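Homework-ish question, so no full write-ups if that breaks the rules, but can someone show me the predicted structure for this set?
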Amino acid sequence: MTESLPLLKGTLDVLVLKALAWAPMHGFEIASWLENKSSGSFDVDDGALYYALHRMEERGLIASEWRLTDNNRRARYYKIRPAGRTHLRAEGANLARYARALTEILSTSG
Amino acid sequence: MSSRRLFQFGGSKRTARNEIREELQYHLDARIAHLTARGMSSEAAREEALRRLGGSLADAERRLGASAERKERRLNVRDRFLDLLGDARYAVRGLLRRPGFTTVAVLTLAIGIGANTAIYSAVDALLLRSLPFRDPGRLMDIVQVATDEGPTEWSRPKYLVFRDAQKSYATLALHRETPTTITGTEPERVSVEEVTTEYLKTLGVRLALGADFPPELDNGPGARKLALISDALWQRQFNADPDVVGKTLSLNNQPWEIIAVLPPGFRGLSGRAEALVNLTAREPDALNEAWSLEFSMIGRLKDGIAPAQAAAEARLLGPRIYEAFPMQQGTLTTSKVPEKWTAEARPLDSIRVASGLKRSLLVLFGAVGLVLLIACVNLANLLVARAVARRQEIAVRLAIGAGRTRLVRMLVTESVVLAALGGAVGLTVAMFGARLLSTINPQETLQVQGLDGGIGAVGFDSIRLDARALVFAFAVTVVVGLLFGLLPAVRATRADLTSDLKEGSNAARGGRRVGASRRWLVVAEVALALVLLAGSGLMIRSLGNLLSVDPGFDSSNMLTLRLSVPAGDVAPDSMPGFYEQLQSRIAAVPGVQQVALADCPPLNNGCNGTIMTFADRPQTSSGNAMVGVHWVSPSWFGTMRVPLERGRLFSETDRLGTPKVVLINEAAARAYFRGEDPIGKKVAVYQGGFHTGAEVIGIVGDVRFGTIDSTARPDVYISYGQARVPRMMIFVRTAGDPWAAASSVRAAIREFAPRNPLYDIRAMHERVATASAQTRFSAVLLGFFAAVALSLAVMGIYGVMSFAVAQRTGEIGIRMALGAGRSRVLRLVIRDGALLAATGVLIGFVAALGATRVMRSLLFEVTTTDPWTYVGMAVILAAAALLASWIPARRAAGIDPMVALRRG
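A: Not a homework solution, just the prediction itself:
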C-alpha cells in the first residue's frame, strides 16, 4: 500500500460531486467511494468532507434527506442537484485540463 | 403533505444542530466499524476515526455549526411559509368543495369591500389627499367677517391695507373667477380668473412656457392687459404653438397679450380657469371701490409663522381695515353694513369642500362601513355553522396533537383566503364605483344646492382608484378576513374532545353552545341593518319632501339657455331692442308657446341682491331691508306661470323714461309691509338706477331662487325695459318636449346673433332635478346599502333558523308524536325567529337614534327621530325576519314524526 496523498485544494468539491453523480450516498459512503476509486491514493479528511458537503448544500449544488440505511439506522443521504451537475461538468473539465498540462510538463524529459 | 406537517407541529424538535450531531455520530460509528473490520483494535479505530474528523466530535460540530445556524433560520422561514402555503391550499380546496357557500361569501365580500373602496376613493380625493400645490400646509385663506353675515370677500383697496399691515405672509394674492367669452373666429364660453401678480408664486406653480406677471403690474389700475393661458387652451386655440408668447387672446372683444402657458392640469383654484389675467387691467372705478367686495385672498405663510399666529394677526387687523374705509350711506351696493367687522385666516385645506358635502360623504362612508360589518357578521355566522359540521375533524386533529393555535391559524387562513377572493372581485366593483363617482358634475350639482363653498380644484373629477385606494382595499381585506374568521375559529377549537369524538352524540349540547353565539350574531346583524334602514329611510323621506316642494313656477316643457353678449357687441342703449328682436325671433319658431327673459334662473343658489328703503319711513341702518333683485321681461310671469296675487304685472309701456315701477313677491310683502297695503307705496332699490324711487304696482307669488330646501326670500322685480340690462337668460315655454324644439330654437338664435356663443342650454325640469341631486344621490346609495344589509340579515336569520330546525328534528318529532299539531310547531319556530328579530330591532332602535344624529343637517323637513320612518323600517325588517323563519318553520311542521324518531 503506497503512502496516501493529501487532497489538493479545490478538488474535493469536484470529487464529491462526481461521487454523488453516481448515486445518492451518505458521508461515509462518499469517503469510502473516493478511497476505493483512487485505490487508496487519496486520504480524505472526514472533517473537511462534511464541511464541503454542508457548504455545497447551502449553495444549492446538492440536497440532503434522512433515510434508513441497510442495517436500519438513520443516516443523512446527499444527492446531486442540476446546479451541481453543471458545476461538476465545468470544474471537472478544468481540473482534467490542469492535470493534463501538469503531466505534460513534468513528463518532459531533460 | 399539509396534514402531515400539521401533526408534526409541536413534536420532536429536530433542529439543524441536532442533525449535525446525529450525522457525525453515524459517520464515526461507520468509520470505526470499517477500521475494526480491517483488524484494528476498537481503541485504535476510535482514535483514528476521530483524527480523521479533525480531533474531536465537538470540534467538528463547531466547524459545521455556523452554517447549521444559517440553515436553521432558513428552515424556519421555509417551514412557516410552507405551512401557510399548505393552509392556503387546504383552504382553497375546501372552498372549491362548497361552491354555493363560496360564491355567496365572495359576492357579499366583493360588494362590501368594493363599495368601501369606491367611497374611500371619494373621501380621499375630496377630504384627505393633499392639495395639488407646493407645500399646501402653508397656504391660508383670508376672509373678512361681518358680524351678522359671516365671511365675505375683499376689495382691492382693503386688500392693500391688509397687505401693507401684515407680517405673517411671504406672498399674498387676490383671485376671482369670472365667466368670459373668448371672442374671435370661434366664440367660446370659458372661465377666467382675475388675479394679482403673486398668485402663482403663492400657490407654488411653475410655468410651462413664458414668464409670470411682472411685479410692477400690481401698481394698476389701468395696467397692461396680460394673460397666462391654460395648457388646454394653448392646445385647442393655438395648436400648441411654441411661439404663442406675445400673441393676442381676445376676451369679451378686448385684446390681452399672452405672456405664458400654465402647466398641464393646472386650472387655478377654481379648477376650471382657461386663463389667468391681471385684475389691475380693470378701469379705476371698477377696482378702487372699497366696498365692492368681490375678491378672495390667499397667502403663503413666512417660514416660522404658524397658522395660529396668522389667524391671531388677522383678527387684530380686521377692525383697522374697516376703519380705513368708513361706510357712507347710499353708496352701498351689496349688503347692509353690520356694526363690527373683523378678518379671519384659516388653512386653505380647511375650506377645500363645502361642509354639507363633507358631511354627506362621511355619512356614506359610515354607512358603507356598516354594510361591510354586517357582511362580516354574516360570514362569521356561516363559518360558525360550518365549524359545527367540522367539529369531528377538528377534534381528531386536536386529539392527535395538533396545537390549538395551529388549528386556529389554519381556520383563519381559510377566512383570509375567502376575504382575498372577495377583495379581488371587489376591486372590479370599486373601479366601477369610483368611475361613477368621478363623473358627478360638481359645478352644477353642487352650486345649485349651495354646496360650492369649496375649492373648485378639489373636484369629483379627481376621484380615481389610485395606489392609496388599493392599499386601503388590501388593509380592509386583511382586517375583514381576521375579523370574521377569528371568532368561529376560536369557538370551533374549544371543542370538548371526548364528547366530540363520539360521532353524533351530544350534538345538542355542543349545538346549543355554538347556537347561542350564532343567535347573538344574528341579533347584531338585525340591529345594524335597522341602523342602515333608518338612515336610508330618513334620506328617502327627505328626498320625497324635496320633490314635493313647489318651487313657485311650472318647470315642465321649458327650455332655458343663455346667450353671451360681450360688452361692445351691442351698444348699451340698443340692448332692449336687441333682446326684443331676439324674443320675437324665438317666438316665431314652431312649437314655441312663450318666450321670456330674466337675469337669473330659479334654484340658482341665490341671485343678485341689495337693500331697499321706504319713502314713508325714517332711514335707519336697521330699517334697511335686504331684497333679491331680478330684471325680467314683462312676459316672464306668464311664461313661468308665476301667479299675480294683487295689482298688475309689467306692461310693454313700462320703459326707460316712464315712471319707475317694481313688483314684489309675497315674502317681501309679508316681511316689510306688515299690516299695510304695499301697492302704490314708494320704495328705493339700490340697483339699476332705482335708488331714486319706484312705485310698487303688484304682488306676485314666491319663487325659490336659492336652493330647493330654503323658502323664498323677499324679492323685487324690475322690468328690463326700465334699466340697463345685464346678461339675460332666455326662458322658452314649448308645446311638448323641450328638447324637441331645442335645435330649431338654437338655429333661430344663431341666425339672429351668429357671433354670440349660446351656453347653459338645459330643460327647466333638469335644473329642478339637479337641485335635489345631492339628496337623491345620498338617498339612492344609502337605500342600496340598506337593501344589501336587509338581505344579509334575512340570510342570517334564515341560516340560523334552518340550522335550529335541523338540530331539533328529533325533539320536534317527539312533540308531534305526543300530539302537537302542525300549527303549534309552526308557531314554535316562528316565535323563535321573531324573538331574535325583536331583540335586534330593539337594540337597533337605540343605535339608530344615536347614529342618525350626524345626518341632521342633511335632512329636509324630517327630524332624525321621525317616528314614521322608524316604525316603517322596523315593520319591514320584522316582516322580512318572519318570512326568513317561516320557510324553516314549514319544513319543521312537515316533519314526519316516525322518520324523525327513527333517525334521532
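Now go work out the reasoning yourself. Hint: Chain B touches chain A through 21 residues (CB under 8 Å).
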